[in-house]
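[SOLVED] Need 3D model of a two-part complex

Original post:
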Amino acid sequence: MERVKGIEPSSPAWEAGAFPLCYTRFRQTDSASFSVQIKPKLVSAITFVMLQRSMAPIMGPTQPGTIQIDETETKADLAAPWNVIVHNDPINLMSYVTLVFMRVFGYARTKAERHMLEVHHKGRSLVWSGGREQAEHYVHQLHSYQLLATLEKSES
Amino acid sequence: MTELRVERANEKQIRITGIAPVLAVMLREVPVILEMRDSPAAKNRLLPDPTSANEKANQEWQQIVGPELHHLFVSAGETMARDLTGLVADPHDINTGQLEFPVEHLRAWMSALNQARLILGEIHQIKEEDMNEANLDPRDPRDLAALRIHLLGYVLQSFVELETGHEPQASI
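Solution:
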């Protein structure tokens, strides 16, 4: 989905290509691409979180643009499938939820409606499954549309 | 009762006509409703946690994403409030209510309308059965909130239809 400037005052939340929490797990060595992926306004927030974790500073002494990763995030944790779940609520319009699924996931109307009806009848729907970073991004997007969405680690 | 009509006036403008006086009042109340977005109940709904059990992840999310989403929601409300200054509505003439705003503001309007509906729902603890109640009494605060949610939903639905060209649906 292409976001058009001016629809709403520009906000990184609309434009984020990856969810901020993902950045704390980057092992990024290319300073050029680093600058593309990290939104300037978020750097201070990320730094704040990293400092809270007593992690190494964002910019290492030898390699500009290198993020020191918290190794407690295991490879298995990142590789395991994560589910994006949308929960029912009494206020959101069915048509609005369908539209959001089409916009966020690029789903065809029939698929978007199927998920919307599952939310309506079963109280929740697993709308997407895959890597954690992308899952976080989708939850972020769904929250920006005011849908109740959560992230769950797949049990499979 | 006039029929609300939402259409593209041209490539750059959205036009709403047939805005009944009561709907005009409710639209003008949206910015006031949005000022309640920071109440605990509304805040929990508009800025929900991303997990059901991981406190640490939820806390980080709220620290990093919370302000971004809050800014986004505030911006949408401000955009709608500015556009509402152009609302023409004579309380003595039900046929005159109309408004135009830039096409680029449509998503801000949808966001602001939905925020207002959700805030009303949280503050008045509106449940599914309240939304399905056919006999709402406007003298009752909760029923009045449900009526306002329905009426704002009517406008939101018109915007969704403009975006998708699809038939009306109920709430999920």
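Edit: DSSP finds eight helices and three strands in chain A.
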